Structure formats: structure tokens, C-alpha cells
Amino acid sequence: MKFRFIWVGKTRDKNYRALQDEYLGRLGHFVKCEIVEIKDALPHEGKEIEGKRILDKLNQSPFVCLLDVEGSNLSSPELAKEVEKWQNAGTKEITFIIGGAEGVSSEVAQRASDRLSLSFLTLTHEMARVVLLEQLYRAYTIIKGFPYQK
């Protein structure tokens, strides 16, 4: 299985970048990973332009998980069960999308196969990236029975 992460903007803060790279490396022991960074929309462009950029990068990914405040709120063990279900179903690639500051276009939202919320709290995009990577790594440690999840 492969995880693709499409998100708007670069991770500029070196501390978040270091954490992102750390969890991406750990996650890479279990699944292939690829990050695709989409250029931020200019103030006059809006989320529709970002949405077109996101859709252009989706390839033919059959399964798209949108990070959305209105998505499913799962515990870490529930996320592990979901990841395991995706694996058992033979899902070859899952694309996770984190939209820009204004959210995602309706076209991107309609393309989503699933929606996941990381928190009821508002997170910066850089923090959301780290939390997503860490939780996916945690999911695999739960699946494999490694002590990290405790």
C-alpha cells in the first residue's frame, strides 16, 4: 500500500519540518509514502484555484481521504482498524488531502471517499501534517502490536 499526502503550502517552520520528517521516516517502515505540496493560492485566486491544483495531482487515486473538521472523529485504535480495513480490502493507494486556509473547493470535497477530522480544535496546517503522520504511524504500531502506542 502507498500513502500520498497532498497539502497546500510548504512546511516552513524547521521544528515542524523536523517532526514531519521524523514521522514520515517511521511511517516509511510500514508503507510507501509520497508528499505533494501544492502552491498556496494568491489572495485573488481562492480555493477553486487550489482545488484545481489538488485535483491535478490526484492521478487516478481511487481512494481519497480528506482532512475535514466535519469528518469522522476516530480514536487511535479506531484509526488503526480503519487502516487495517483499507489494507485487507487491497487498497493500493490512499491519498490524504489537507486543504488551504480557506478549506477545499466543492470539487475536491466531492472527490473524497472518506473524511477524517484530527480534532475539534483548530490546528495550524503545519501541526495538522505532523499530527496526521504521527497518528498513521501510531496506527501501524497498534496493528503490529508494538509498544509505541501505549
Structural notes for this entry:
The protein is 43% helix and 23% strand. The protein is an alpha/beta fold. The chain has a single domain (2-149), classed as Alpha/beta knot (3-Layer(aba) Sandwich). It has a five-stranded parallel sheet. Helix 1 (14-27) runs parallel beside helix 5 (125-144) and helix 3 (76-88) packs across helix 5 (125-144). The protein is globular.
Task: Give the SSE order as H and E letters.
Answer: EHEHEHEHEH
The helicity comes to: 40-55%
**CATH-level-4 superfamily name:** SPOUT methyltransferase, trefoil knot domain
Calculate Rg over CA atoms: 15 Å
The strand order across the widest sheet is 2-1-4-3-5
Instruction: Identify the overall geometry.
Output: globular
Question: What is the class in the CATH system?
Answer: Alpha Beta
- At CATH level 3, the topology is Alpha/beta knot
What is the strand tally? Answer: 5
| Average residue pLDDT | 93
- Kindly name the structural category: alpha/beta
Level-2 CATH architecture:
3-Layer(aba) Sandwich
Biggest sheet statistics = 5 strands, parallel
Weakly predicted, low-confidence segments:
none
Strand content is 15-25%
Please report the distance between the alpha carbons of the first and last residues: 25 Å
Compute the number of structural domains. 1
Number of helices: 5
